[in-house]
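Consider the tokenized backbone below.
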């Protein structure tokens, strides 16, 4: 009997551990395989009891729903085989060798019978011509780990078209309308308003309109192809398992010495391939390894808390917390800063602290905290400058009347976005990301501009894609649309992803300058404060005159950007804003 992978909630997952061996006798629901994806680890239970006769996957393989994991001889099959053997012995009384041949023949016949039964069952389950088949569909990637069902837009019995909105999902970041995956009739809705749902969760059953028998034939061919692939790979599975055991038995010290030698040659930094070589004996999934690299943690020093000492994300966080608590300032003449903040004092004594009130953070604020914590790891510097936007403001005043008639809000921010996008194409280092191993930068070919928008729940950053190819009018339109969606909680996941640089404008909120925080993995962010009239010296007229000056604050990751480049870049943006015609040159 084939034991297949169930619905994993993701397209594919990696085999992290095989918990059984050929010859083991297992019970139903015994865990047989540990699968790990970027989102979770799943222990796959056996759907039947019996003796393990074949393992069709190896550690490191990528598996998906329906793929054969192991094969077992069930109790029923074993009994049938024994009965067949006894019958053969009693009637023919052949030698032991002949009995074995007879048993093999019986098993083959049994398998053929099972195949015929499966085929008959499949033929029986085929829908009648002109009718559809009920199919269960899972939620797409929501962009967050979980979200709440805010509204169900259809009812059982409704006929829906493909891409018709059927669910409204609301997360801490945005509201997302989930479209129907196919056209057909709603047979069952598997979620309710108020439920918390996750990526890949089954949410609706739809009877498709255009389902035919060819669909089943295609699926049958696909199943046969998967089985054939599993059979072809099964021959080498035992060899792979043996090789893995030998690799695991090798001392960890040799791997660590190899990594240390490579580090010494490269000045203390390991490339990603060297890191992988060093960590062959670490029991952790790809998501955990990536987190450790991002936080600068040597994962070989982290203790795992899961089964077989497997390392979880919580273990990495606990290791970082413990390391910070143990750090002490070096003995110098002046007192060093604390590595981490102590716990709050007990504020229950009203005589000392007065009356207090506890208020919950908004969901948006809660999910923003981990992202903001990344900024504490960045060596950030801020460059300040002023741009004379007197003439640009006159141009905006001439154009805004026509824009307003078309329902378009035309603010100075549109000019700032366009000028910054052009500057990023001329200074691409600011439109890049630092690689995980800190040896390269990944330069973006397009400018996807994040625009910080203040909402009642907190700050949110929707993204305008390919700004370098858009004019002022189109930019103004998209700024208005995204700002409206943000305030109405109607932003989709695509609206919040992919930014290469961010602009944070305080508009008319006041203030002369501020220090915006770089939004990792970006390397720069431009802050814009309120413009004000200031006296400036006119060399030609030899007199002071009032000019409208716009404060700019550029924060940058000093690992990628040096101070001289930051000063040149900020001055270039100020020059473009003073005379936008330069963009046309």
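A designed sequence for it:
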């Amino acid at each position: 009997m084939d034991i297949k992978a169930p619905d994993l909630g993701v397209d594919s997952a990696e085999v992290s551990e095989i918990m059984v061996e050929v010859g083991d006798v297992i019970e139903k629901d015994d865990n047989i395989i540990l699968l790990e994806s970027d989102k979770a680890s799943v222990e796959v239970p056996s759907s039947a009891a019996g003796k393990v006769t074949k393992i069709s996957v190896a550690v490191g393989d990528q598996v998906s729903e329906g793929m054969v994991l192991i094969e077992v001889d069930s109790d029923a099959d074993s009994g049938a085989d024994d009965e067949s053997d006894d019958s053969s012995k009693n009637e023919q009384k052949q030698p032991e060798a002949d009995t074995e041949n007879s048993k093999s023949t019986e098993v083959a016949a049994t398998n053929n019978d099972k195949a015929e039964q499966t085929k008959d069952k499949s033929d029986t389950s085929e829908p009648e011509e002109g009718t559809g088949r009920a199919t269960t569909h899972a939620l797409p990637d929501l962009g967050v780990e979980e979200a709440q069902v805010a509204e169900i837009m259809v009812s059982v019995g409704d006929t829906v078209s493909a891409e018709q909105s059927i669910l409204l999902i609301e997360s801490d970041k945005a509201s997302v309308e989930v479209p129907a995956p196919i056209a057909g009739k709603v047979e069952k809705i598997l979620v309710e308003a108020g439920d918390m749902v996750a990526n890949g969760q089954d949410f609706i059953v739809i009877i498709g309109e255009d389902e035919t028998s060819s669909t089943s034939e295609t699926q049958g061919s696909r199943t046969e192809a998967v089985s054939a692939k599993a059979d072809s790979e099964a021959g080498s599975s035992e060899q792979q398992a043996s090789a893995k055991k030998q690799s695991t038995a090798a001392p960890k010290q040799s791997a660590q010495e190899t990594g240390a030698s490579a580090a010494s040659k490269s000045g203390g930094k390991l490339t990603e391939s060297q890191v992988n070589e060093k960590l062959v004996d670490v029991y952790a999934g790809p998501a955990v390894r990536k987190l450790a690299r991002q936080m600068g943690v040597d994962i070989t020093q982290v203790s795992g808390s899961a089964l077989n000492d497997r390392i979880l994300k919580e273990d990495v966080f606990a290791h970082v917390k413990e390391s910070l608590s143990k750090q002490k300032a070096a003995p110098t003449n002046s007192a060093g800063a604390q590595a981490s903040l102590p716990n709050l004092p007990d504020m229950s004594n009203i005589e000392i602290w007065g009356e207090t009130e506890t208020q919950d953070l908004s969901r948006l604020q809660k999910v923003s905290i981990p992202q903001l914590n990344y900024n504490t790891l960045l060596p950030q510097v801020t460059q300040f400058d002023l741009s004379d936007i007197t003439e640009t403001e006159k141009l905006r005043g001439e154009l805004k009347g026509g824009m307003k008639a078309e329902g378009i809000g035309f603010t100075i921010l549109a000019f700032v976005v366009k000028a910054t996008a052009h500057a990023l194409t001329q200074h691409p280092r600011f439109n890049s990301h630092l690689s995980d191993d800190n040896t390269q930068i990944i330069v973006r070919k397009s400018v996807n501009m994040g625009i910080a928008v203040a909402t009642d729940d907190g700050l949110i950053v929707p993204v305008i894609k390919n700004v370098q190819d858009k004019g002022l009018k189109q930019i103004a339109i998209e700024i208005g649309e995204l700002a409206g969606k943000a305030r109405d909680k109607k932003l989709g996941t695509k609206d919040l992803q992919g930014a290469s640089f961010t602009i944070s404008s305080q508009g008319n909120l006041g203030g002369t300058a501020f220090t915006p925080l770089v939004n990792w993995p970006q390397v720069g962010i431009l802050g814009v404060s309120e413009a004000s009239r200031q006296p400036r010296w006119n060399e030609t007229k030899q007199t002071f005159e009032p000019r409208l000056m716009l404060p700019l604050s550029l924060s940058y990751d000093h690992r990628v950007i040096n101070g001289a480049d930051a000063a040149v870049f900020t001055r270039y943006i100020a020059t473009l804003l003073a005379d936008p015609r330069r963009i046309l040159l």
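The chain has 14 helices and 27 strands.
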